[in-house]
Specification:
Length: 331
Amino acid sequence: MLTMLASLTSLTLGASGCVEGEADDVTSSSQSATSEVKVLFKSDWTTEVRGTLTNGKRLLIEYATERASCRGTVRGAPAWTVTAFYRWNGGEVRNIWAAGHNPDPTAPAAGIELDRTGQLEVWFQNTNLSGCNAYDSNYGQNYKFDVGVAATGNEPNWVGNASYAIERATCNGGVCPGAWKSLNNGFTYDTWARQRAALRLVGFEVWKPGVTDFDNGNLWQQLDVQIHRRYVGQPAFTTAYVNFDARWGNNAHYAADLRAMDPFEWPAGANIRTVDDCPTYTLRRDVSGQYVEAELEFYFSINGVELRAPTGDFFRGKYQDYLGNYAVCTR
């Protein structure tokens, strides 16, 4: 459900019925070239983005009535409605009116304030007075938009090479050359990592000329580097700063400690006796049934520019521990 899309393709409704002929035009609204951007959900089941999706703008939704399978009229007025649901970065779900009967006709045109960056998911529910109910949700995957940071001149020129290192051996107190592994396929933090590894890190590189290409004592002021993370099952992300690690050529390398994010670090499970004591995020048993697992989803931001997996999805990591007291949380 989390694959980032620059533009959206065709879809079908999740239910159908209760259709009555009406105008095929897209719901109209005004647009400002500087402060607004439109997303057109067209009658031919394609979607068009007009403008650049960046924070600080307002996203206007134009929803074609032909997409609504639950329609009808009462005394010539629409007896149906389309509600747009949306959420940022997998967080709290909100909704706005999108088409059909508007309970507040004096309200502004249907839109979403782009007051942050990241992934914006949108999907629709269509209902009518006779009880018809249908969803327009890209086959349950939702419509996903990448909302970027508005250009300010502070953005890094490049970010990448996300990697991890879970190593027992060290070289001058750090990760040995060649030991960093690509983060694209995730990592596993198991009982060996918890008990035996000396270094447990995730990292990445940032390049900005005149900022990262020399020993810059003001780097911490010029680059705002953060990690945003949650365990699967949690609704919202938490944010923490990522420390500068070292200068790699002209790039600044940053690294975050995986141990600090370990949900099973002692004494996390010491007081679990009943289901009521279990954490709120999702726990599962591994294929052997001897270990408990929790999955971490995370991404990085540098002066508002996000670094995610190549698919646009979150980076992922799997934490494991002995089943023990967590057995009651995995049934």
